[in-house]
Amino acid sequence: MIRAMLLEPPHRPARHSRFAAVICLLLACAGCSGAFFSALNTGLGGPDPSTVVFDAGHGLALDVFAPQAADTPAPVVVFFHGGTWQGGERGEYRFVGDALAARGALALVPDYRKYPQVRFPDFMDDAAAAVAWAHDHARAHGGDPGRIFLAGHSAGAHIAALLATDPRYLEAHGVPRHAIAGLIGLAGAYDFLPSDDEELVAIFGSDPDQQARSQPVNFVDRDTPPALLIHGDADRLVKPANSRSLASELRANGVPVAHTEVAGIGHIRLLAGMRTERLADVLDPTAAFIHEQPARTPTPR
Length: 301
Known about the structure:
Elements lengths: L17 H10 L5 H8 L9 E6 L4 E6 L8 E7 L13 H9 L3 E5 L11 H16 L5 E11 L1 H11 L2 H4 L8 E7 L11 H7 L3 H6 L13 E6 L8 H12 L4 E6 L4 H6 L10 H10 L9
Parallel strand pairs: 3-4, 3-5, 5-6, 6-7, 7-8
Antiparallel strand pairs: 1-2, 2-4
Helix pairs in contact: 1-2, 4-5
Protein name: Alpha/beta hydrolase
Organism: Alkalisalibacterium limincola
GO molecular function, one term: hydrolase activity
């Protein structure tokens, strides 16, 4: 069952880093995810985010992390949290928004409804609504609505990737596909169905066509935005083959992709790399990718 595999075995702590050692200890403790996120959110240097309701009907909000030291409109990163489409809260990911804002991005971390409240594709509509808010309000917060990056970890990376590859979700909310400058997937699930796993069937359904509609690899085409895919090669929750498969499809369609597997790193520790590179080399390549990607223009038909 997917829930039973959320935590990875402990790893040797990074040298000369008391903070990293604490995080690694928490990684070894089953059931201590609250303490894990609390530690990652301790001692952050950025200002508090502002919170905006983007879907009052469903009670959905997003946290806005203003870009720091930005002289021109900043790239916008919409980061979707993980949690096997069942758990996780946007507030746990403040360290992600803080890190991205410190690197000059307008970072947004939104809610989305989760199972059992909803099933696929309802949470995709929530995610698209959050991106639409970003597109419509980026300028008011120092961002560039023509350079939106879709990002996420684990289930959040799946959501980001499906928004990036299947244009129907964003088009339904009036977001032009060329406004998406890039995809950033951390330990994402991109090619994991068909499956008879009870939890996955509950979330995505048992119909083969329905399951196929949930897989980002099935929608890659030449208009898919450039991608950065980072995965730990010791990930036991979301197999690295997911990123390999998506990277292969992107290359086959001529889409630029940077695909990295971090040696000896598992599922949760990869996410912690957004706080400090001592845990995993994630933040630096993510920031570089964001600032290297130009705005896209519509592809001629």
